[in-house]
Amino acid sequence: MKLIPWAALLSLTTVHAASLHQQQSADYSVMQSQVPPLPTSSSDIVRYDDEKVMEACINNTVDMQNTLDWIESNGWDLWKHPSADNCLHVRLNQHDQDIFLQNLPASAEHRVFISNIQSLIDQQQKISAAGVGNDTTANYHAHYHTYDEIITFLKNISDTYPDLVQLFSIGKTYEGRDIWGITIKSKKAREPTKLWMKIKDYFITPSNSTNGKKKKEMELIMHGGQHAREWISVATITYFIDTLCSKYGQDKHITKDRMWRKNRQPTSFPFCTGIDLNRNWGYEWNRGGSSPNPCSEAYMGPAAFAAVETKLMADFVASRQHAMMYIDFHSYSQLWMSPFGSDCNERPKDEEDLTELSLGATRALKAVHGTSFAAGPVCKIIYQASGGSLDWTYAVANVKYSFAAELRDVGQYGFLLPENQIVPSGEETLAAVLFAAQFINERENGNKGH
Ligand code: 0X9
Ligand code: ZN
């Protein structure tokens, strides 16, 4: 029995990556980069009192487009684009709620989706504070964690499994935080440990491919936290690492602005900080579905790769010569997306394999807790978004299996997904990733089954 060959990369500021490999080595690495600064005092913390998330469903395409343009021109925070269901979610303060309702087109149906954002944030913080602050192993995934806590987690994993894990930084964010990655790797000569005996159930592969061809060396890169407020993305990948290695954790903290999305880089407008990292990648940058306005949540930046974090992550992916899969984790909407986001008419040359994998992965995911994910190209299933990561990893870095996933939920809590969904999200998403690994192993190396 040979162990498989994987590498996972997780990043704490915005990025998580993992790599899948062949032969007898197993690799994982993770990285991350996008964490808002910690508040210096409680008065520094941005509050969302009396803010709501409203849903508006509009079937008339012209009315919908006008409404979207109007939301953008008001600088309101669109939480969900009306992709498949013609319904949008938008965050509004009390004053803007009235304006919104008064000006909606007659064809619109609306309702309150989240009635008080601040009370949900408070609730989450109260649970964290009351929870096991210094929870180590068992309860780690019952909570969200701060940047420092996650670094501690990764360092502990690395101390506990020095033969297996390599922790590294790919560089610094704009505000000077390390973008951490972790590679989990089983050495060829190494005897399988108990841990890897367990992992082999997931990643096992025959010593020779069934078709007699030389096996390809493959890596899987997983990337999380590209958008700061999508905490479940980071938590889910941390869960993957833990499941593959062991479990460890620490205490809680709060961030300055729970709804922050972009990086922390200044722009040409003094009062509008941040580039949307997922509009700043260098493939067909500025081709639609991104904004030149520095105040927009989808600000593309002054040039491709002007965001330090995007550039570092792209250099990292480019340096992984055996990268075979890249998955960029986001929230929310429950989608498994493939290229392209920039051009709605461009079809990837590997469309058939990508579609087959996507359908299988979402089926495997659903089998765990019954959660439904839709699958398809970014541009069709969600919206046009140029300068996104998966277009670049696919078209420029030649990572054949490039995906982005929008994790739980469909809007009940949105970005404020409760902590008790971290483990279920981790479990179901890991099932999808494992399916993908197996699919790739079979498709690229001709290995059937275990
Ligand atoms: O708009 C985005 O960047 C993603 N949705 S989110 O709500 N998490 O912000 C979708 C991104 C699709 N992927 C790429 N275009 N790469
Ligand atoms: Zn996102």
From TrEMBL:
Keyword Disulfide bond tagged: yes
Residue positions of the active site: E406
Record-linked SUPFAM superfamilies: Protease propeptides/inhibitors (SSF54897), Zn-dependent exopeptidases (SSF53187)
SMART domains in UniProt: Zn_pept
This protein's UniProt keywords: Carboxypeptidase, Disulfide bond, Hydrolase, Metal-binding, Metalloprotease, Protease, Signal, Virulence, Zinc, Zymogen
Cited InterPro entries: M14A-like_propep, M14A_act_pep, Peptidase_M14
Xref: Gene3D superfamilies: Metallocarboxypeptidase-like (3.30.70.340), Zn peptidases (3.40.630.10)
Domain annotation Peptidase M14: ranges: 143-440
One GO CC term, this protein: extracellular space
Cofactor: Zn(2+)
Transmembrane segments: none
GO molecular function: metallocarboxypeptidase activity; zinc ion binding
Family note: Belongs to the peptidase M14 family.
Task of the protein: Extracellular metalloprotease that contributes to pathogenicity.
UniProt protein name: Peptidase M14 domain-containing protein
Annotated organism of origin: Umbelopsis ramanniana AG
